[in-house]
Design a protein that fits this description.
extended, 8 helices, four-stranded antiparallel sheet, alpha+beta, single chain, three-stranded mixed sheet
Length: 342
């Protein structure tokens, strides 16, 4: 959920918003209860990691989604909010006793407390008086990292590789040259099958109780799954006489990328300068093949100098700094037409 929604919520007199983060994705780095601010407007945010929550327990010894940890609790608020939501396809409560069991589970989590069925509105009314004392969050990295420092690391990697290449070339026709080069080539990284996803599956899911299921069963059984970097080449470059529009046509060098791995045969990108001295960038691809393998495509742009240029995106009528995204807050899938502004 984007911060650009805050003015819309505020204009419609919505005081709080509650989000249960899917149990197989890493939740945004926010407290469960916080003051969500955008410019001069704000709403109270209730964020629950690991589901909304999971299925409520039926006995006190196994509270499951009704555990104290899964309830909304704040030291300055005299009440707590617990959810008895059932999970996907579980249906409504089957008996009255099932509902009464939920009450007993909550009483076990909050001894000597009065437990009753209530509403979001009632809980929000208890939170509003301490709204100004709730934590306010922003992306501090925006202020501390003003340059593309990661490029220094990349350059150092290239430099280290160059040292080895220079050493190998210095061997010339030495008797040991072939043996050394063969051993060096054997050290190049190779990923068989879908092992690329091993690290992803260890880091990305918030809960190990779920199988991510990214892709399809047996997706590599009848395919030659391979992870490697394939090169592309520019096959055409065109410009208008006024130099206000440029059109670039490029293709993948190896046809196997299209035949087996879903790459398009032709990719075009059009840069057009507008009367407002902005640039519109249009990306199109053609003749893309279908596969059973996980795929993604992205147009990546890097700000050349954060001290001089600010990169912004348009979302829901607001202009947002593209780098003002919380950890686990969809930094990669970010932005919307009509434009990206420097």
């Amino acid at each position: 959920m984007t911060q650009a929604v805050i003015p819309i919520l505020a204009q419609n007199n919505i005081k709080a918003v509650s989000v249960g983060v899917n149990g197989v994705s890493s939740p945004p780095a926010v407290p469960k209860l916080f003051n969500w601010v955008f410019k001069n407007q704000s709403v109270i945010g209730f964020w629950h990691p690991g589901g909304y929550p999971n299925v409520p327990g039926q006995i006190p010894i196994m509270p499951l989604g009704l555990s104290r940890h899964d309830c909304l609790v704040h030291p300055l608020v005299s009440s707590a909010l617990c959810f008895a939501f059932k999970t996907d396809n579980a249906g409504p409560p089957e008996t009255l006793q099932e509902i009464l069991n939920y009450y007993e589970v909550v009483r076990s989590q909050f001894p000597q407390s009065f437990v009753r069925g209530s509403t979001f509105d009632n809980f929000v009314s208890d939170v509003i008086p301490i709204k100004s004392r709730l934590p306010k969050l922003f992306n501090g990295f925006v202020f501390y990292f003003t340059e593309q420092n990661f490029q220094n690391c990349e350059i150092s990697w290239q430099e280290q590789r160059k040292f080895i290449e220079l050493s190998l070339s210095a061997l010339a026709n030495h008797p040991l040259a072939s043996e050394i080069k063969d051993k060096w080539n054997g050290l190049k990284t190779q990923w068989p099958d879908t092992s690329d996803f091993d690290a992803f599956n260890e880091i990305y899911p918030y809960s190990n109780a779920f199988f991510l299921g990214i892709g399809k069963p047996n997706m590599t059984k009848n395919s030659e799954a391979l992870s490697q970097v394939w090169d592309s080449k520019v096959v055409g470059f065109y410009r208008k006489s006024d130099n206000a529009s440029f059109l670039i046509h490029w293709q993948m060098q190896d046809p196997v990328t299209h035949d087996y791995y879903g790459a398009p045969t032709d990719i075009w990108i059009n840069y057009t300068q507008t009367q407002k001295n902005d640039w519109n960038i249009e990306l199109q691809w053609f003749n893309k093949s279908a596969t059973r393998l996980p795929e993604s495509m992205a147009l990546v742009m890097l700000n050349p100098d954060k001290t001089r240029f600010k990169t912004c995106v348009h979302k829901m009528g607001q202009v947002l700094a593209s780098d003002n995204v919380l950890i686990n807050g969809s930094q990669t899938l970010h932005g919307k037409c009509p434009c990206l502004t420097y």
